Amino acid sequence: MEETKKKIGFMGLGIMGKAMARNIARAGYPVTVYNRTPGKAAELEASGIRTAPNPKALAGKSDILIAMVTGPEALDELLFGAEGAAQALAAGKIFVNMSTVSPAYTESLGKRLAASGAVFVDAPVSGSKKPALDATLLILAGGPRDTVDELTPLFKTMGKGVVYCGEAGKGSMMKMANNLLLGLMIEGLAETLLFGKAGGLSQEALNEVILNGPLNSPIFQMKIPPLTSGVYEPNFPLKHATKDLKFLLETADNMGVVLPAGQTLLSLFRIGVARKWGDLDIAAISKVLEAINDL
Ligand code: NAP
């Protein structure tokens, strides 16, 4: 007899969440969604996914509640607001935060939810819009090991793999580490292309050296097209990269760890956001480099 699938509630239908909720439903789970701006659920409703009127109602009808929203403010609103989901979380239910937040916030969230009796797992993701659409994200999970094991088939409907990082909060810690390298790689690529072009090297030759040698990486393959075309369609918006790096540097500061390149990167990101490029893709960091070079 086929196993009955758990009922999934999904909050947050942005760039990532909409694709992730759709992939869970495609795998046969009963999915209900909630989004602050209701219009964003319309496309999913058309494919048979139900909508809950508020987060509390969503949590009430779900075995597993997932959030994929901007960050702490959005989570506080959805969980602890007037019709917040926390009111309907209870023993036997699982709450999974997949949004990127700091390990410190994750820890405090775990404490605030403890009284509900629900099990809390933090599971941010590595990967952007396309991996979310293609269900090839990497899930960075923190929480009780048996719960993460139980959630693994569900996670695999959204991703190609699950990395168990430790207790709740360690998923967020891994996400911070991942995004530091991601940001530095993209900024390094943008800086290298700017230097190469200023030195009279052709884009083709630069691409060949970067992509055919030991430097090659999927992230360089993904980011060379926007960097060369100057079209920064937001896969991972610069404003979110800035938020994440701020969390990371606060975390490093709390641990007494100095990250000099990370500090510089945050200054560059902030210039980009101040210039109103926050809604563009993180690759728009090249616009910051051009601006400070007066190009
Ligand atoms: P997004 O497109 O900006 O979507 C943000 C979502 O959060 C929307 O559903 C939005 O609702 C909701 N939201 C924001 N503020 C809210 C509030 N105060 N109350 C209730 N809901 C609120 O973001 P995204 O790119 O999908 O990213 C979601 C999370 O994944 C972020 O933590 C991000 O850092 C992380 N992440 C993103 C990527 C990426 O490449 N995009 C990759 C890995 C991880 P509305 O529709 O009503 O605005």
Write up this protein.
The chain is 52% helix and 13% strand. It has 295 residues and is α/β, with parallel strands linked by helices. It folds into two domains: 8-167, Rossmann fold, CATH 3.40.50.720; 174-292, N-(1-d-carboxylethyl)-l-norvaline Dehydrogenase, domain 2, CATH 1.10.1040.10. The strands form two sheets. The chain has a six-stranded parallel sheet with strand order 3-2-1-4-5-6, with helices on both faces. The N and C termini lie far apart (66 Å). The protein binds NADP nicotinamide-adenine-dinucleotide phosphate. NADP nicotinamide-adenine-dinucleotide phosphate is lined by residues 12-17, 35-37, 40, 68-71, 73-74, 77-78, 99-100, 125, 128-129, 235-236, 240, 244.
Approximately what portion of the residues adopt beta-strand conformation?
5-15%
Mean pLDDT: 96
Helix and strand content put the structural class at alpha/beta
N→C terminal distance: 66 Å
Radius of gyration over all CA atoms, rounded? 20 Å
**Total domain units:** 2
Order of helix and strand elements from N to C terminus: EHEHEHEHEHEEHEHEHHHHHH
CATH class of the largest domain: Alpha Beta
Task: List unreliable stretches of 5+ residues.
Answer: none
For this structure, the CATH topology of the largest domain is Rossmann fold
Cα shape: globular
Bound molecules: NADP nicotinamide-adenine-dinucleotide phosphate
Number of DSSP strands? 9
Please give the order of strands in the largest beta sheet: 3-2-1-4-5-6
The CATH architecture assignment of the largest domain turns out to be: 3-Layer(aba) Sandwich
CATH superfamily of the largest domain: NAD(P)-binding Rossmann-like Domain
Helix content range of the residues, please? 40-55%
Multimeric status of the protein: single chain
